[in-house]
Structure formats: structure tokens, C-alpha cells
Amino acid sequence: IVINSRHIAMREELWRTFTFSYHTGYAKGFSRTPAWRLHSMEPTMMIEKAVYSNMPGFLLRRKYMRRLHIYPDEEVPPEIIGNVCDQIQQIQKVPKRLDEYTAEEIQAFPKLFDWSEEYVIENISADKPKDTVKAAKK
């Protein structure tokens, strides 16, 4: 059972560049669909195609695919939940963004060292004259 297939993620620019291809069986029936369009039409289809293509091509592949249940949200029928015997745990917790921390949590976070009062980080690009930057580009 796969839940929340509507909220999947893809690396880098694969939403835009990856295409799923199929053939209708008719002349000139070859068709390609971008990943973002396929996911907007049917949120469960991308996981189904990924699992199907990564299974070995033997006679039991279609039987195994019938046993795979994919749901776009968390709503799963109770008769299917009753047959679940195990669950894959999440590998790593999703980290919080910096704006989700409170001021107390930020202050309580251990520091490796404190910067001295007279330490100033200088803007290196502001110190260079513009003539040297143009000469470096030539």
C-alpha cells in the first residue's frame, strides 16, 4: 500500500524534463507525456509506472502489480488497512526550516565559538576597483 502519492518529489529538473512514453498500437500512435502533466492528470500513475518498469519482466509481474494499492491521499479503505501486517518506517526526520524555530530554541542551540567584538567580515567585491574587474574579464 502506498499513500500520499500526490505529494511525491523528483530530483532537479526531472518534473520538466522526464517523459513517460507509450504506444497506442495504431499507426503513428507513439506518445510522450511529461512527468508534471501525467502527475496532474493521475497522481497515482507515476508510482505505478516506476514500480512496473523496475520489476523484472517475468509472468508474475502483472499479478504483483494487482497487489499494489496506491492512494493519492491518506484515505485508505478499512478493509485494506485491516490486512496490513508491517510498515516501512521513515528513514530520516524532515528538518525544520530556520523560521520554524522559536527564539528560545535558537538561543539554546550550542555554539562552537563566539566571534569577538572587533571581528568584521568585509565585503571583498566592494573593495576592488571596477577597472580591475573589467581587466580580469578580458
Automatic annotation (TrEMBL):
MF terms (GO), sorted A to Z: mRNA binding; structural constituent of ribosome
One Gene Ontology cellular component term attached to this UniProt record is: mitochondrial large ribosomal subunit
Matching InterPro entries: Ribosomal_uL13, Ribosomal_uL13_sf
Q: Which UniProt keywords apply?
A: Ribonucleoprotein, Ribosomal protein
The family database entries (Pfam families) matched by this protein are listed as: Ribosomal_L13
Q: Where are the transmembrane segments?
A: none
Write out the GO biological process terms: negative regulation of translation; translation
Per the record, the similarity remark reads: Belongs to the universal ribosomal protein uL13 family.
User: Could you identify this protein by its name?
Assistant: 39S ribosomal protein L13, mitochondrial
Source species: Magallana gigas (Pacific oyster)
